[in-house]
Amino acid sequence: MSARMLTTIFLFVLSEAVGVALGEWFFQLFLKAVPPVALSQFNTQSARIAHWMYGGGVGIVLFGFALIGMVMGKIGRPSPKAAAKP
Predict the structure, then answer these.
(1) CA 21 to CA 56: how far, in whole Å?
(2) Among the four residues 9, 24, 81, 86, which has the most C-beta atoms within 10 Å?
(3) Domain that holds residue 62
(4) How does residue 63 score in pLDDT terms, banded at 50, 70 and 90?
(5) Residue 14, pLDDT above cutoff 90
(6) Distance between CA atoms of residues 52 and 75, nearest Å
(7) What is the pLDDT confidence band of residue 84, given thresholds at 50, 70 and 90?
(8) Distance CA 26, CA 23 (A)
(9) pTM of the entire predicted model
(10) Taking all residues of the chain, what is their mean pLDDT, rounded to a whole number?
(11) Structural domain total, the chain
């Protein structure tokens, strides 16, 4: 595997981990905001899964933004051939 592919895979895994962590954080905020009387076991678990799925979606969006940033950084950098010409 090339270094570029390993970097892309690492970036994807990292962005998904950040997204799922955000989902878990929002789930904890949900538990603090909703009174325990209004929550059943089913509601709590389905809310956790929904927050994790939301976090997975956020991770994909973060990955997309990172790829766009990598491409834009590559486009904005002058090529070595252009820099060598007087």
Answers:
(1) 9
(2) 24
(3) 3-84
(4) very high
(5) yes
(6) 35
(7) low
(8) 5
(9) 0.78
(10) 89
(11) 1
Residue at token pair 């809310």? 47
Residue 4 has pLDDT above 90, yes or no: no
Block residue for tokens 């895979």: 9
Closest C-alpha among 10, 3, 55 to residue 30: 55
Which residue, chain included where needed, has tokens 């709590």?
44
Alpha-helical (H) ranges within 2-40 are 3-33
Tell me how far the alpha carbon of residue 48 is from its chain's centroid: 17
d(CA 29, CA 79): 48
For residues 26 and 20, what is the distance between their CA atoms, to the nearest angstrom? Answer: 10
Single-letter residue type at 61: V
- Max distance between CA atoms of the chain, in angstroms, equals 75
In this model, does residue 45 exceed pLDDT 90? yes
